[in-house]
């Protein structure tokens, strides 16, 4: 039998659950925002001793916590590696993303994210969503001011939907280690859909990238029997 350490009752608390400090979310560069286990999960783990402190939170304290989070005033935020293993944790994560109305630089690396299409980041200029589970450009958040977008190591197999980014000031795009990278005439297709793009996968736009794909080539082919 191992006795509980004094710190055990705090291990599932977020930074803003700790009393007697005035640190706000917009003052943190890389906060841990992952929610702790549910009440039922804690009972299964035989860690119900942590519930006493969590159950003391009143509705007023919840509101004060949200004010302290202050996500609305974050301009630069790193929410990578959050280990979102449960649905309620993903929902809480999206709740935070919906509040990022002023964020300009955002990192969401390695969070197993699959669909953020309902999220809008109106001022985001730089987004790093590497190492997630996106399969389509249509699953990305709405970023009308995006300039630098990195989606390396996702599972995007098609360039369908990429043209939606034409209406943004996008300058650089990273799609390394996505299946779409192996598509025939990949660079030409990307640049033809995004004529204002300057850099793809870290390589500046080259003269051979500017010519549109010869889609008529396939219609000129004939079969000789």
Describe, in short, the structure shown:
The protein is an alpha/beta fold and 225 residues long. The protein folds into 2 domains: 1-69, no CATH class; 72-209, Leucine-rich repeat, LRR (right-handed beta-alpha superhelix).
Structure keywords:
seven-stranded mixed beta sheet, 22% helix, Leucine-rich repeat, LRR (right-handed beta-alpha superhelix), 225 residues, 8% strand, alpha/beta, single chain
Described by strand count, sense and barrel closure, the largest sheet is: 7 strands, mixed
Q: What is the CATH topology descriptor of the largest domain?
A: Leucine-rich repeat, LRR (right-handed beta-alpha superhelix)
Helical element count?
A: 7
Name of the CATH first level of the largest domain: Alpha Beta
Tell the overall outline: elongated
Give the strand tally: 7
Number of domains: 2
User: Structural class from helices and strands?
Assistant: alpha/beta
Order of helices and strands: HHHEHEEEEHEEHH
Report strand %: 5-15%
The CATH superfamily of the largest domain appears as Ribonuclease Inhibitor
What radius of gyration results from the CA coordinates?
23 Å
| Portion in helices | 10-25%
Strand line-up across the major sheet: 1-2-3-4-5-6-7
Question: What average pLDDT do the residues reach?
Answer: 84
User: In the CATH hierarchy, what is the architecture of the largest domain at level 2?
Assistant: Alpha-Beta Horseshoe
Low-pLDDT parts are: 216-221
Amino-to-carboxy terminus distance: 81 Å
């Amino acid at each position: 039998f191992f006795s509980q350490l004094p710190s055990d009752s705090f291990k599932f608390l977020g930074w803003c659950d700790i009393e007697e400090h005035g640190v706000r979310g917009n003052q943190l560069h890389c906060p841990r925002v992952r929610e702790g286990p549910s009440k039922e999960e804690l009972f299964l783990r035989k860690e119900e001793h942590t519930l006493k402190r969590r159950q003391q939170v009143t509705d007023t304290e919840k509101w004060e916590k949200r004010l302290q989070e202050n996500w609305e005033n974050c301009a630069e935020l790193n929410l990578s590696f959050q280990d979102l293993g449960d649905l309620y944790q993903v929902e809480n994560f999206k709740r935070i993303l919906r509040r990022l109305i002023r964020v300009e630089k955002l990192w969401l690396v390695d969070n197993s994210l699959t669909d953020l299409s309902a999220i809008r980041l109106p001022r985001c200029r730089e987004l790093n969503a590497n190492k997630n589970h996106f399969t389509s450009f249509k699953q990305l958040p709405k970023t009308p001011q995006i300039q630098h977008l990195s989606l390396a190591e996702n599972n995007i197999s098609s360039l369908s939907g990429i043209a939606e980014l034409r209406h943004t000031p996008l300058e650089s795009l990273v799609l390394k280690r996505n299946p779409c990278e192996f598509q025939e005439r990949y660079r030409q297709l990307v640049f033809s859909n995004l004529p204002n793009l300057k850099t793809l996968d870290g390589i500046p736009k080259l003269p051979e990238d500017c010519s549109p794909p010869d889609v008529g080539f396939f219609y000129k082919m004939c079969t000789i029997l």
